[in-house]
Design brief:
Shape: globular
Number of strands: 11
Oligomer: single chain
Order of helices and strands: EEHEEEHEEHEEHEHEHH
Radius of gyration: 18 Å
Structural class: alpha/beta
Distance between the termini: 29 Å
């Protein structure tokens, strides 16, 4: 398990919905942040039980240089991440853990489809920033206000299709609908998704229905509508569905395939 403490060295308000925190990691080798465009770490806030993984939240690494890590927090009306990001000051200490990443387009990819709501905006910005100069990509992005789009860097090969004021806890998301309505280019594509969990499931099923193979997408639910109800229901059935994920891993199917089997099992029982 990757683990290191870090100290806050700078905080900056980027907008009304984004707060930047720069950290100095005490043991970067142990934390082992992945060198991928959607690298993320778990942040475990002071005052919580460090043995309780549910007390942490995952955040995308906007920049990573040696022992310096920049995290951009999307602010909400409440929640431990928002409270910490808006009140922490230089010198404060925080625990980082569970470094990971998902974004892995194959070398044969001709074009990319990026799909994100506010929760995935920091990772989306880094992906766009690190795209090769000759890359072709379409970004479907769901934000709260037009000003949120100013956070995204420019790229000559990027087409942005925004929807404003939906999803993100304000109302039903339109991301899956936008994916279904998109006319995709020819050639081998790749899809990266970061948004609400039910929308992620819908997009995954749609792409599979088009014949996409598992190596053509990395689709991750960054958050869930009414997560408290889902968590309570999951706690009742976890002994039935978690073994499905574990058996798939034991069979050598890989984490992505194992998660899909687990997610399908959850869907069958109404989760």
């Amino acid at each position: 398990m990757s683990l290191s403490y870090a100290r806050v060295i700078d905080t900056t308000a980027l907008s009304g919905r984004l707060q930047r925190i720069v950290l100095q990691v005490e043991d970067p080798a142990a934390l082992d942040i992945k060198h991928a465009a959607d690298s993320a770490v778990g942040v475990y806030f002071p005052g919580t039980d460090t043995d309780d993984e549910d007390e942490g939240r995952n955040y995308s690494v906007r920049r990573h240089d040696g022992d310096r890590v920049t995290l951009d927090f999307v602010l909400h009306s409440h929640g431990p991440g928002t409270t910490w990001a808006t009140t922490t000051r230089p010198g404060d200490r925080v625990r980082l853990d569970h470094a990971r990443s998902w974004y892995r387009p194959e070398p044969t990819t001709r074009w990319q489809l990026l799909v994100s709501d506010l929760s995935g905006l920091p990772a989306t910005a880094r992906i766009v920033e690190e795209l090769p100069a000759d890359a072709s990509a379409t970004l479907l992005v769901e934000v709260a206000a037009a000003e949120d789009l100013d956070y995204l860097p420019d790229h000559q090969g990027l087409t942005i299709i925004p929807v404003i004021g939906t999803g993100n806890g304000y109302g039903p998301s339109k991301l899956a609908e936008m994916v279904r309505e998109l006319t995709v280019p020819g050639g081998r594509g790749y899809c990266w998704f970061a948004g609400e969990a039910a929308e992620s499931r819908a997009v995954r099923k749609y792409l599979r229905g088009l014949g996409w193979t598992i190596d053509q997408y990395d689709i991750t639910g960054y958050w869930r509508v009414d997560s408290e109800t889902w968590d309570a229901r999951f706690s009742e059935v976890q002994d039935d569905v978690l073994p499905i994920y574990e058996r798939a891993l034991t069979a050598g199917k890989g984490d992505k395939a194992a998660f899909e089997e687990f997610d399908e099992a959850c869907e069958r029982i109404g989760l």
